[in-house]
Write a structure and sequence with these properties.
single chain, 216 residues, alpha+beta, PH-domain like, 2 domains, three-stranded antiparallel β-sheet, 6 strands, 56% helix
């Protein structure tokens, strides 16, 4: 999926479709296999190799009042239920991280029941790290970490122990976000320095006026 050059402000952004696919495979593979197994049993009982065995078994239990069609439908419903549970489980993990941008800061939101929100002003951002473990490259994913002035340290142990603020995100989205954050950080610092120079000039002008008044 191609993302625009700049993300919309004041809009909550998710981590991308590739991230959802990775989470679905990583967290719900066993539920998916169970769903496939039950769907296959439904097909095998209704049309496939198990049709005769199922009919013979049900004929030996006439008091159950169950036909092969009913049995196949039950297995099909169970299989669909496993697929639905897998989707909901993946969606829960996918929604744990969101972010949005405004004119002054980036806001990171993590968690579902215990929600943690982190606000990082642009002028405090010094760098943005994008890491790509080998298994992330197959899906076009990355890890993204926003480094602030307070994070900079010469201690390698501290750097290696630091957690990524966005542990999984689409690579293309991570690059767009990284570029936009660094642009906003540079713009914020530039405006801040201009404002500081203007304040200094106003202070100097005020001091000069006060000195002239004293001389008079």
């Amino acid at each position: 999926m191609d993302y625009p050059q700049h993300l919309e402000l004041e809009k909550k952004h998710k981590r991308g479709r590739r991230t959802f696919l990775f989470i679905f495979i990583h967290k719900c593979w066993w539920l998916t296999l169970l769903g496939i197994g039950f769907v296959y049993l439904a097909w095998a009982i209704y049309w496939g190799t198990l049709q005769q065995q199922a009919a013979t078994f049900l004929a030996a239990h006439p008091t159950w009042y169950v036909t092969t069609g009913m049995l196949a439908e039950w297995f099909l419903l169970v299989g669909i239920s496993f697929f639905l549970v897998a989707y909901l489980r993946a969606n829960v993990f996918y929604r744990k991280y969101k972010f949005f941008l405004d004119e002054y800061a980036v806001h990171l939101r993590s968690g579902l029941f215990y929600i943690r929100e982190t606000t990082i002003p642009y002028h405090q951002i010094s760098n943005v790290h994008i890491a790509r473990p080998y298994h992330y490259r197959l899906f076009g994913l990355a890890q993204l970490d926003i480094v602030t002035a307070a994070d900079r340290s010469d201690d390698r142990a501290d750097r290696s122990a630091k957690k990524f603020l966005m542990p999984i995100i689409d690579l293309s989205l991570a690059r767009v976000l990284s570029r936009q954050l660094l642009e906003n950080a540079a713009r914020s610092r530039r405006y801040g320095s201009i404002a500081s120079e203007q304040d200094d000039e106003d202070v100097e002008d005020t001091e000069e006026d006060e000195e002239e008044n004293v001389e008079e």
